[in-house]
Sequence to fold (179 residues):
Amino acid sequence: SGVLMLMVQSVSRALYEQGEQDPCAFLDVLNRAIYKNVERTRTGKHLSLAFLDYSDDKVTIAGQHEEVIVIRKDGTVERLDTMDLGFPIGLEENILDFLSSTTLPFRPGDMIVLYTDGITEAESEDGRLYGTEKLIESALRAHEATATEAAAAIIADVKAHIGKQKVHDDITLVVLKHR
Fold:
């Protein structure tokens, strides 16, 4: 998995330096490069990947990953299912027909929460999963804080849920807050 992420970072950086602005074209080229490397190395690995691009009080999202959680300044919650925005990277050679993007308003006070399944599938000592609903509740409690404070509060809540239980997956969280 680590080698796969290095490949993704390298190809992504090269595309960024080349000036590729279209998120679907970016994901298409990235996928073809990763697919060929996965085939060549016979690792059988692939990943989900979403891109967010912020500009002019809007955020454009492309690619498939976990749900994107948007908490508006007034506490309204929006959940964006990304299944129709992409396809797992490195699984098929040509995913262009599956790639799409969507644009949402992103105004001052709004917050976006991105996460890996290691958060929603984090188990408590009695086997209960943390889940998306609990993640949203935690994010709502912290939505008036800065992005750094909100992320720390959510991670603290996940850790409290896990207790002394062994962590079985990566726990990755990104919180974006429009100032």
